[in-house]
Amino acid sequence: MRKRDILTPFGITLGFIMIMLAILWNGGTEGAASFVDVASIFIVIGGLVASMLITFKIEQIKTANSVLKEAFVKNNQQVSDVIDLFTHLSQRARREGLLALENELEVVEDPFIKKGIHLVVDGMDPEVISDIMKAEITAMEDRHYRGRLLIEKAAEYAPAWGMIGTLVGLVLMLNTLDDPDTLGPAMAVALLTTLYGTVLANLVFTPMASKLENKTEEEIFIKEIIIEGVIGVQSGQNPRILEEKLSAFLPKEKLKKQQEAEEDSAQVESVHEA
């Protein structure tokens, strides 16, 4: 299940608020107005769009919206939930046979797990199952990289167009040194384009690209655990052994809590037996 990731909009908003507070603190509302320049916005945004159109195919650019949305959602799939699921599947497979797993497909939401179960029910060899599922991970990683590349390139181009705007502003300023009235607007274009490009790159595009990269790594990690679980179920591993094997993927804190819970449960059972 995917939920909204509030940290992304919160971080971007917080960054802009800090910048605005710094401006208002030193220049007041009049000073804040001087940080808005339409010409600078046109140079940075227009140049950025132009560079993206040159770099990517139109089919890739059409996916930009869906790629950006990924930075605002999170996958709540937990390692502990995956372990519990495969422990249950292993128990049922040993009790009723591998064909009984087909009935579990209705309650499983993850398509990657479903695919693994289908392969198990179809009687595929463990090596074949592993190869097929690892190939899907590789394909997913490639798709994510190509989508993330849009944002990474935007992070590269934004400061560059800010610098181009600065050069334009400096040329305009140097050409009108004899007219003091034009120095201010020319200087604004020179400085604000660099500011806009740098803020877009370091507050929006680069952090988003890094977040998407982290999400891809987390998803790959989960899928590798799923492959281990599928192979364990297919090979008929003891549910307890499979659970212990998959628990090695848990973070140390969660693993410690799980061990403590198992020890408490064992103590309770020994008291009842006594």
Structure in words:
It is a multi-pass membrane protein. Its main location: membrane. Keywords: Cell membrane, Cell projection, Cilium, Flagellum, Membrane, Transmembrane, Transmembrane helix, Transport. It is found in: Cell membrane. Residues 107-220 form the MotA/TolQ/ExbB proton channel domain. It is elongated and about 90 Å long. It has 274 residues and is mainly alpha-helical. It is built from ten helices and two strands. The longest helix is centred in the C-terminal third of the chain and has 55 residues, at 180-234. It has a two-stranded antiparallel sheet. The model is unreliable at 266-272 (pLDDT under 50). The protein has one domain.
Report the order of strands and helices.
EHHHHEHHHHHH
- State the shape: elongated
Overall pLDDT confidence: 85
Helix/sheet category: mainly alpha
Count of domains: 1
Proportion of residues in helical segments: over 70%
For the record, give the distance between the C-alpha atoms at the N and C termini, rounded to a whole number. 43 Å
Main sheet overview: 2 strands, antiparallel
Show unreliable segments. 266-272
Classify the beta-strand content into a percent band. Answer: under 5%
Which sequence of strands runs across the widest sheet? 1-2
Number of helical segments?
A: 10
Counted beta strands: 2
Domain MotA/TolQ/ExbB proton channel: 107-220
Subcellular location: Cell membrane
Main location: membrane
Membrane topology: Multi-pass membrane protein
